Amino acid sequence: MEKGERLAVETIIVGLAERSYPIQVGIGNLGSLGSLCREGGLSGKAVVITNPTVAALYLAPVLRSLVDSDYEPIVLQIPDGEEYKSSETLQQLYDGLIENGGDRGSFIIALGGGVVGDIAGFAAATYLRGIPFVQVPTTLLAQVDSSVGGKTGINHPRGKNLIGAFYQPKFVLIDLATLETLPEREYLCGLAEAVKYGIVLDRDFFEFMEAHIQPITERQKDALLRVVATSCRIKSSVVERDEREGGLRAVLNYGHTIGHAVETLTGYRRFKHGEAVAIGMAQVSSLAFQKGLATDDETRRVTALLKNLGFFTELPDYSPDDYAEIIGHDKKKRDDGVTFIFNRGIGDFVMEKIVDVRTLLLTCVRGEHR
Ligand code: NAD
Ligand code: GLY
Fold first, then answer.
1. Which DSSP letter does residue 56 get?
2. Catalytic-residue membership of 29
3. Which of 115, 204, 283, 289 gives the lowest tally of CB atoms within 10 Å of its CB?
4. What is the CA(151)–ligand 2 centre distance, in A?
């Protein structure tokens, strides 16, 4: 952090009755971790779970802060990468917790991106039937999305996030200064989720992003504070109304259905998840226009915002049958339909079950609003 830069702090409360917790968003506030743990009543062994990439950058200040607050921290490192969000890595975490005498008074600190947050959170949810945990997200995606709302879990060889639990953290500590070291494509992936909130839930936020392309892409701190704090506020309000995804929370999957098909068809090599979601959002906004839910101008604004932030928005060249096959891949989905989220204008949405996915996608593949 530049000398003299202000340490802005915003606190957002996720209101879930006895599971409520604060999200603290600041700049250069990593050093407050130890005192926040003390204020949160966490008194046992502090077990920091991280990976070598994040450890090299941020473990030292985290450990210093914990030691300054009289903790004797233990560190468990997992390898870096989505493929390590697995049952084998989880087993190694349980081994580490047992070998280090982790007991019911112990608590876990997840220091890293969504991979670390998801698996560390699931270890916390399941070790000794649940011990407290704290999220310290260091990617933009984790700060605007995965650290908030309590979805924890691991992948199964047959699919992503198939094993998991809803388990809320005690608090979330976000230090925007950690984003300075984030690679460009990882930064973009987080921005895709922020744009998603704007398109389907908050027109003012969408317009803020439209008007601040340069500060956002340059990661200027004021813009970052607005993007991250607003995203956390929007996600919190959804989670407060539907913690376990009985209905409303599915709005957070906007753009993800087509995005997932893009990732699958391109073999998970060409696009990162957020980049594929951006393509999905551009395509669904085009469908919203076809369905009379959004105007031509609104649809062009969605695509323009995504493009101006640096996203690719065109659907890779596969047939509607290829996309429909993946989106409605099992018989049940083909018969019952797939729930699509469409934006209604900008800042609102509708959910609709689509049975004939192929016909719906014909418009996308023809390429309107490019
Ligand atoms: P990630 O955790 O793999 O992090 C991306 C890369 O950035 C990694 O190499 C990581 O080591 C590195 N990194 C982290 N912080 C850094 C920093 N400050 N500077 C430099 N490098 C840094 O990926 P992600 O995008 O953060 O998270 C993706 C995961 O999140 C997926 O597993 C996805 O399923 C999950 N997810 C969960 C939820 C949820 O609600 N729980 C929501 C969305 C996504
Ligand atoms: N990222 C989707 C959710 O938390 O529900």
1. I
2. no
3. 204
4. 7
